[in-house]
Amino acid sequence: MNKRTTEILVGLFVVLGAAGLLFLALKAANLGSFTNGGTTYTVQARFDNIGGLKARAPVRSAGVNVGRVTSVTLDAQTFQGLVTMEVNQGILFPKDSSAKILTAGLLGDQYIGIEPGGDERNLAAGDVITQTQSAMVLENLIGQFLFNKAADSGTGSAN
């Protein structure tokens, strides 16, 4: 092989490596939508505590991605977190479905989990999911555990 062919192959390898890194970075940041750009419908849910939920977080049901969070705002009237999400058009959830903020793994990213209900009517665009469960904040759980341990040790030594 002559020098020019070698330089072209190395350049092609570098371009492919850069494209692979770009793809990996977009997927890791949950910014690349490389799935079908199908139509969606928008639903909302109110939570007392959204934890670390962010826009573009996945919406899952039974572990399968069914949509994406589009915005997280504060409702000025109820002072709750208002989460707006887009759900794939082909997936219809009953009106009495519930939404939970869950965590992927022990310290992973948070996402919305939708559990289908049993109603015969389905959610439509603009509907609000009324049955919600807020995020479990790890710091609050540790604080409660330590407080309970301190309270238990305080009552045990009084006898």
Q: What is the strand and helix layout of this fold?
A:
Blueprint: H1 3-28, E1 40-47, E2 58-61, E3 64-74, E4 81-88, E5 98-103, E6 110-115, E7 128-129, E8 131-133, H2 138-156
Parallel strand pairs: 1-7, 2-6, 5-8
Antiparallel strand pairs: 1-4, 2-3, 3-4, 5-6
Q: Can you walk through the features of this model?
A:
- The protein has 159 residues and is α/β, with parallel strands linked by helices.
- It contains two helices and eight strands.
- A hairpin with a 6-residue loop joins strand 5 (98-103) and strand 6.
- It is flat and about 80 Å long.
- The model has no long low-confidence stretch (mean pLDDT 86).
Based on the model shown, name its key terms:
8 strands, 8-stranded mixed beta sheet, alpha/beta
> What is the N-to-C order of secondary-structure elements (H for helix, E for strand)?
HEEEEEEEEH
- Average pLDDT metric: 86
Low-confidence stretches: none
Taking the alpha carbons of the first and last residues, their distance comes to 89 Å
Multimerization state: single chain
| Rg on CA atoms, Å | 23 Å
| Strand coverage percent | 25-35%
Find the count of extended strands (DSSP E, 2+ residues): 8
Question: What is shown here, in short?
Answer:
By secondary structure, the protein is of the alpha/beta class. The protein has helices at residues 3-28, 138-156, and strands at 40-47, 58-61, 64-74, 81-88, 98-103, 110-115, 128-129, 131-133.
